[in-house]
Amino acid sequence: MLLNLNPKNKSIADLIPELEHGEPESMDTFVINHSAGIKVLLAPPSPEMAELITPAGAKRMIEALRKSNDLVVVDCMASFNDTTLAILDLADTVLTMLSLEITSIKNIRLFLEVAEQLGYDSEKVRLVLNRADSSLGIRVADVEHSIGRRVDHTIVSDGRSVVYALNRGVPFFLSNREAQVSQDILRLASAVVGTKPAEAGADTKKAAQKKSLFAWR
Length: 217
Description:
alpha/beta
């Protein structure tokens, strides 16, 4: 919905059973090409089908996608289960969202405790503070003191641009690139892929002609 894509296309629930018999000849039959230059593998269309996704299946999927894509982005659910943990184990970078709310801070503290038990270091787990400029009575310094580490990236609050973009199914980075929230996203993406913001935003068509970016939504 957020990318204005057809939910009737094939999803991860169609791909994983295929991988049990070896990799398909082409992954393109399971993904949707988006105008932004990414390929999207849709989430299962129903909760019942989502329950069929096993940790082993998710691992095979990610390993297969890594062979033909420069970057694999997995949008995980906000709770732990065996499949989510399998994905986090395989990840090079885990971006964890938090906000200036007491419940969010509490959840982040719990997540960081689990991450430490799993052996994830601070280089792997990066904290992204959303709506970082909101005046809610909690400062960024308060958050960092509470969780015992610094926030790695911040994104400003811009409900007007974000909600308008979501309702249109067009990423706000494409529809309103000059907005501060878009520039914050650009800096975050650049930090993840290891480029300078100017380099990350330049010559997108040339980059798309190489391997594709990939997202599972």
